[in-house]
Amino acid sequence: MSRLFLLAAFLCSINSIWTATPYKDCGSTAGTIQSFDVTGCTTAPCKFAKGHNYTMNLGFQSKSASKTASVSIHGVIGGIPIPFPLSDPNACNMGVKCPINADDTNIATMSLPVLSSYPSLSLYVKLEIKADDTSNDYACLQFPATITSGVAQKQTLVGWKKGKLFEMLN
Fold first, then answer.
1. Are 99 and 65 in contact (CB under 8 A)?
2. Considering only CA atoms, which of 63, 66, 35 is closest in space to residue 135?
3. In 3D, which of 148, 155, 145, 154 has the Cα closest to residue 38?
4. Residues sharing a CB contact under 8 Å with residue 79, sequence separation 6 or more, in sequence order
5. Residues 22, 43: contact at Cβ < 8 Å?
6. Alpha-carbon distance 118 to 48, whole Å?
7. What backbone phi and psi angles, to 5 degrees, belong to 6?
8. pLDDT tens digit string along 99-141?
9. DSSP for residue 168
10. DSSP type of residue 66
11. In whole angstroms, what is the distance from residue 33 CA to residue 141 CA?
């Protein structure tokens, strides 16, 4: 009976690994990332088709308190962070329970529209949730992404290693 329970627990943990979006922590000093997923993305790089919306869920546990928190998203192209405009960057309006106390666990859910006007290219997406009281990151992560027109495109990408960037798509 205990073997069956262990097997079931193992299979559930494997399933959660397979369904998560690959990312790298980029300095979560005021919290710990618990989970991260983007709809339709379980392998790197995430493929974003122009004209579609994607949902991102970021779970984190806070290490410190703050009355509010803010979300920022940047596309990092050639090492240069380019801000992604958010209509409302207030994390409290994305499912985060405010005020945030130390050891709180929260999940922020946000929508990422990929406009048809965006160029087809590969980039890193940097997502941060900052404590407004201290400006420290509850969560900071980066993940590789490719913006495509939705049709098959050449995928000449540089490896997902620190310090290397993706090449432009044709």
1. yes
2. 66
3. 145
4. 165
5. yes
6. 11
7. -65, -40
8. 999 999 999 999 999 999 999 999 999 999 999 999 999 999 9
9. P
10. B
11. 9
In the numeric block, which tokens belong to residue 111? Answer: 């929508």
All residues at 6 or more sequence positions from 166 whose CB lies less than 8 Å from its CB, including other chains: 45, 121, 122, 123, 124, 144, 146, 157, 158
Q: Whose CA is closest to 45, among 120, 130, 96, 131?
A: 120
Structure tokens at 9: 């627990």
Backbone φ and ψ for 94, nearest 5 degrees, come out as -115, 20
How far is the C-alpha of 32 from the C-alpha of 138, rounded, in Å?
7
| Coil, strand or helix at 70 | strand
Cα Rg, the chain, nearest whole Å: 17
Cis check: omega of the bond before 99, within 30 degrees of 0: yes
What does the pLDDT look like over 61-74, one tens digit per residue? 999 999 999 999 99
DSSP 106-162: EEEEEEEEE-TTSPPEEEEEEEEEEETTT--EEEEEEEEEEEE-SS--------S-T
Helix (H, G, I), strand (E, B) or coil at 59: strand
